[in-house]
Amino acid sequence: MSRYFLSQVNIAKCLAPLSDPVMQGFVDNVDKMNAIADVSDGFIWRLKDEDKDAAVLVFKDDTLIINISVWESREALFNYTYSSGHIEVFKRKKEWFSKMKMLHMAFWYIPEGYIPTFQDAKDRLDYLNIHGETPYAFTFKSKFSVEEALHYKLIK
């Protein structure tokens, strides 16, 4: 079987434009969070800032911050999210982002070498919000395997 990795998207709705003083604490910490991810065990790839302009075309909302990354496993992503220096900034999210009514994070498996797109991310978030957690799109609450994802039939 080919190797598969965990892809994740998370989105957040900014309280103000990134240039606004309200967002300064977040802006000041982006490089720090990215640097922690880049050296974390199990980290494979992340969307770079210069690639984010296309997000508005897909998500049709310029107030969203969109993060997409690829990890060796769910455990590796969990450790980065909750057991690294990332948690210090994560705990402050209410200072910069509004509460979203929809689920704002989704995971799915991708074959080794595949780079997830904004459309992939939007499709998984939309599916998760319509159908709940399935092997096609899930969160930390579920522990779906690659095998389950490969054999999952999409609900239309």
Rg computed from alpha carbons, rounded to a whole number of angstroms = 15 Å
Any low-confidence stretches, pLDDT <50, length ≥5? none
What's the N-to-C terminus distance?
Answer: 27 Å
- The counted number of beta strands is 5
General description of the model:
This protein is of the alpha+beta class and 156 residues long. It has a single domain (4-151), classed as 2-Layer Sandwich (Alpha-Beta Plaits). Helix content is 35%, strand content 21%. The chain is built from six helices and five strands, in the order βαβαβααββαα. Strands 1, 2, 3, 4 and 5 form a five-stranded antiparallel beta sheet that branches. The model has no long low-confidence stretch (mean pLDDT 92).
Key attributes of the depicted protein:
about 160 residues; alpha+beta; Alpha-Beta Plaits; five-stranded antiparallel beta sheet; 6 helices; 5 strands; about 20% strand; globular
Short description:
By secondary structure, the protein is α+β, with helices and mostly antiparallel strands.
